[in-house]
Specification:
Elements: E1 3-7, E2 13-17, E3 22-25, E4 29-33, E5 36-40, H1 58-75, H2 81-88, H3 92-100, H4 106-114, H5 123-127, H6 134-140
Antiparallel strand pairs: 1-2, 2-3, 4-5
Helix pairs in contact: 1-3, 2-3
Length: 141
């Protein structure tokens, strides 16, 4: 099986096998973007995923739930967290933890929405008994 190696533009390798098949290799770099991985192309640009690849992370969904439930409380739609838990068919403590997310520092909320929280931070870390002071919240992260 003879192979012919051809150097293509952009430092990609193309190998043509004797049976006519091609093997194309592109140099890419995989980097971390929060909890997700991003592909860096040879020219240094980011590969942008398709629209349907951009589903919210579990922490983003939890934050959205917390703000929705807080809005329900503030509007008078429900009287307390227990009523929300009953409506949603979930545990009271879960509702309470998600509503806790609404008291996070603005930069932490932005990091959640941008998916740039450090990899070691979990939903449990930020939702269970968050400090009242934003400075202390940042120290926890």
């Amino acid at each position: 099986m003879n192979e012919i190696k051809i150097k293509a533009a952009g430092e990609a390798d193309v190998v043509v096998a004797s049976d006519g098949s091609l093997n194309v290799t592109f140099p890419i770099k995989i980097t971390r973007r929060g909890r997700r991985k991003a592909v860096m192309l040879p020219d240094g640009t980011d590969f942008h995923p398709r629209d349907w690849d951009g589903e919210p992370t579990p922490i983003q969904m939890a934050l959205a739930r917390g703000y929705r439930w807080l809005a329900m409380l503030e509007s008078g739609q429900v009287k307390n967290l227990t009523e929300i838990a009953t409506l949603e068919g979930i545990d009271n403590s879960y509702v309470s933890r998600m509503v806790n997310l609404t008291s996070l520092a603005p930069d932490i909320v932005a990091a959640i929405l941008d998916d740039t929280l450090p990899n070691h931070v979990t939903l449990f870390d930020i939702a269970v008994d968050p400090p009242a002071l934003w400075k202390e919240q940042r120290l926890r992260i």
